[in-house]
Amino acid sequence: MAEEERKDQGQTQNEAEARLQLERLLDALVGQSLPQGGRQELVRQVLEERRPGMAADLEALASRLREEVAQEVERRAQGESAPPRQYLRFSLNFRIQHAVLFSSCIALILTGLPIKFHDTGWAASMFSLMGGIQTSALIHRIGAVGLIGVGLYHLLYTGVLAEGRRNFLALIPGPKDLRDCWLMIRFFLGRTEERPRFGRFSYVEKFDYWAVYWGMIIMCGSGLMLWFENQTMRLFPKYIFDIAKEAHSDEALLATLAIIIWHFYNVHFNPHKFPMNKAWLTGRLSEEEMRHEHPLELEEIQGRGQAEEER
Fold it and tell me: What is the mean pLDDT of the chain?
């Protein structure tokens, strides 16, 4: 009889401990989002209606939470911080397009500028280094095929894929870009301490994009006319061919200077980015980089995440 009473007391004590543990766990998991009566009802369902699956799930979750808290405490004790969150900015599709574009442009610049400045010593050295004018011309045409190919694919990308359409619409300049540019000028001159807050693309990136767009139309159009000279001369007067030749030559020099002075500085030589902004390679930016460079986009992403959590 005494032994049975001890068993009953032990079972009652275990149930009380289990009830207390569950109540504490529910407080840790849901806080005040679940009313006190709701927490008590859930405890009653677990203990009194004997739902072992629910109890096991809660216990497993509690165990995992305890492990994570212990790891965080250990990291902080050792002076370590949690790894920064990364945000995907450019997809693999977009990064491959960029890689083909800059590879083609580098090949075209290295083989095209010596033709423009053919009467200089360095141009002769470049031709010799590349194996002669014929090899240089072949490399130039290979680069041209790459540039035309990526241009046509990009048109398909922006017209068919949702990602392409979203990026294209975000790259269209608007009144905010003029205000951002003016605010940035005033910031650089020390007239204000406020910096413009950019969304997915700043006015600098939009300028880069549309400069490439315009340059590709000029370079590919005039380049094809020079490549197929006989067909061009049959279809158009000679002065059209001469205009295409001058446009191709001058636009090539302008594009080279824009890439080296404007784009390379913003991506590579900017003190905040040196030796490079790795987003073109990894497609990702850290949360700190997003907060500094694209705060409006970061707020939009976090807002969508909060809405998902609430749902």
Answer: 81
